[in-house]
Design brief:
heterodimer, A: Arp2/3 complex 21 kDa subunit ARPC3, B: about 280 residues, Thrombin, subunit H, 6-stranded antiparallel beta barrel
C-alpha cells in the first residue's frame, strides 16, 4: 500500500530523531557500554515495514547524522547503516513472515554486521585494542528488538501507515 | 550501491580536514538533540536549587564570600608578584607570556561513545572556541578541545587513552609525559626510568612544552611508583587533580602557544576572546 501522507512520514522521522536522542542519553557510569544502537534498530523496523518509503538513502542520511552526533569519522555509520538496510530491504518479504524468534536472530546478525564494520573502520584508522564490551550493544540491541518492534508497530498502526 | 561508493569516499577523505565545514553544517541540525538530551539533567539541577532551603543557601553564600575574600587577598599578592616577574624578565631581556583569557563552558550530560573520554560543552565556534585549546577547572587541567562545532564542542579529557600531556614534577622540574589510561581517575607515566627522582605525593604541573597547554597548571598527583627490575621503565600512576567526573563547569583557555614579546598590543583575536570572556 502506498503511503502518501506526509504526516505519516513525519512520524517516521520523529521516531528516528527520538532514537538518536536515546543514542546519546547519559547512562550511569559503566552502564554506557550497554546502550544499544537505537537508530539502527528503528531503521531496521521501518525498512521491513515500509520498504517503499524508508530506503538506503534515509539510512545513509541518518547514518551521517549519527556520525556527526557521536563525533565519529564521517561516513562510518552511514556505510554500516546503508549496508544493513540494503540487506533488510532485499529480504523484507521473507522476514515479515518470520516468527519473532527468527526475526530476533536476523536482527542480531544485522547489529553484528554493523558493529563489525565499525570495528573494521576503526582498525583501519589505527590498530585498536578493543574491550570485550564493544560487542555488548549487539546483545542488548537484540534483547531490545521486541520492545522496538512493539512500540513502532503501535506508532505505525495508530496512524494506519501501510 | 552508489551510496556505498560515496560513503567509502567520505571515510577516506576525512583523513584530511577538508570536510570540517560539512560536519559543522550537519552539526547545526544535530546539536539541538544534545541540548534536548541534556535538558532533564539541567531541569533536575534547577529544581534541586529552587527547593533547597533558605538556610542552606545562606550558609553556602557565607562560605563562598569567605572563600572569595581569601582568594582576593591572595590575588593582591599575586598581582605584585606578576609585576615583579615582568620587570625581572625585562631586565633579562626575556619574553613573557600574556595572561590567559578564559571562557566558562557548561558540560552537557550527553554520552557520545563508551571507552572514550570525550565530553560535550555548550560553547562552540560561535564563542571563538577552536581545536586544541586547553581546558581547565578550578583544580587543574581537564583536557583539550578536540573538535569545535558551531554550538557545542568536544573536549578530550586527559585520561582518554589517546591523550598525552607534557608534564613536569613540581618539586624538581623533571620532565615527562603523562598518558591517559582510560580510567577516569588515573594517568600513567610510562617514560620514566626506574631510577627517576619521583615519589608518591609529587605534584605534576604542565611543562608548557608542546605548546598546547600553558605552563604551570597542576595536572595530577603521583600516587604509585613501582620500579620493575626486569624492565627499563618504571610503572608510575597519578591521580588527576581536576574533578573530571564531577564537574559541570569548565574553563576554556585562550593562550598563545608562542610567548609574545614584552611590548606588544593585544591582537584582534585576543580582543575578541576578551569580550567573549566578559560575556
Amino acid at each position: 500500500m502506498q503511503l502518501n501522507n506526509y504526516a505519516g512520514f513525519f512520524r517516521v522521522i520523529l521516531t528516528l530523531v527520538f532514537a538518536m536522542c536515546l543514542r546519546i542519553a547519559p547512562w550511569p557510569g559503566e552502564m554506557a557500554a550497554f546502550n544499544p544502537d537505537w537508530v539502527l534498530l528503528v531503521l531496521i523496523y521501518w525498512s521491513l515495514a515500509i520498504p517503499d518509503r524508508v530506503g538506503i538513502f534515509h539510512a545513509w542520511i541518518f547514518g551521517l547524522l549519527t556520525d556527526v552526533l557521536t563525533g565519529r569519522l564521517l561516513g562510518q555509520y552511514a556505510l554500516a547503516y546503508s549496508l544493513v538496510i540494503y540487506i533488510c530491504i532485499k529480504l523484507h518479504k521473507r522476514l515479515r513472515r518470520f516468527p519473532m524468534l527468527q526475526q530476533g536472530l536476523f536482527v542480531f546478525f544485522c547489529l553484528l554486521l554493523s558493529q563489525l564494520l565499525l570495528f573494521f573502520i576503526k582498525n583501519l584508522q589505527h590498530p585498536a585494542q578493543l574491550h570485550a564490551s564493544f560487542w555488548l550493544p549487539v546483545f542488548t540491541g537484540t534483547l531490545c528488538w521486541p520492545l522496538v518492534y512493539g512500540v513502532l508497530r503501535f506508532v505505525r498502526l495508530s496512524r494506519r501507515l501501510s | 550501491m552508489a551510496v556505498l561508493a560515496s560513503t567509502a569516499l567520505l571515510a577516506t577523505e576525512h583523513r584530511s580536514p577538508e570536510l570540517n565545514t560539512l560536519r559543522a553544517t550537519l552539526s547545526v541540525l544535530v546539536d539541538p538533540l544534545k541540548y534536548l538530551v541534556d535538558m532533564p539533567a539541567t531541569l533536575a539541577e534547577q529544581a534541586a536549587e529552587s527547593v533547597s532551603s533558605y538556610r542552606t543557601l545562606k550558609m553556602e553564600n557565607e562560605r563562598l564570600r569567605e572563600e572569595q575574600l581569601a582568594h582576593q587577598a591572595r590575588l593582591l599578592k599575586f598581582a605584585a608578584l606578576e609585576k615583579e616577574n615582568i620587570r625581572l624578565r625585562a631586565l633579562l631581556e626575556n619574553s613573557f607570556k600574556l595572561g590567559e583569557q578564559v571562557l566558562v563552558a557548561e558540560l552537557l550530560s550527553v554520552n557520545m561513545a563508551p571507552y572514550e573520554h570525550i565530553v560535550i560543552v555548550n560553547k562552540g565556534t560561535r564563542f571563538g572556541v577552536h581545536p586544541q585549546q586547553p581546558v581547565l577547572d578550578a583544580n587543574g587541567v581537564v583536557g583539550q578541545v578536540f573538535r569545535a562545532l558551531p554550538f557545542t564542542s568536544e573536549i578530550m579529557l586527559i585520561t582518554d587513552p589517546n591523550h598525552a600531556i607534557p608534564v613536569q614534577v613540581n618539586r624538581n622540574g623533571l620532565l615527562t609525559i603523562a598518558v591517559g589510561s582510560g580510567q577516569i581517575n588515573r594517568l600513567v607515566l610510562p617514560y620514566l626510568p626506574s631510577n627517576a627522582d619521583i615519589r608518591p605525593g609529587d605534584l605534576l604541573i604542565t611543562s608548557g612544552l608542546g605548546g598546547t597547554f600553558p605552563q604551570g597548571y597542576p595536572v595530577a598527583v603521583v600516587d604509585e611508583f613501582t620500579s620493575q627490575p626486569n624492565k627499563a621503565f618504571a610503572s608510575i600512576t597519578a591521580t588527576p587533580k581536576a574533578l573530571l567526573d564531577r564537574n559541570r563547569e569548565l574553563m576554556i583557555v585562550w593562550s598563545k602557544s608562542t610567548p609574545v614579546p614584552l611590548i606588544s598590543r593585544p591582537t584582534a583575536s585576543e580582543a575578541e576572546a576578551k569580550t567573549n570572556a566578559a560575556e
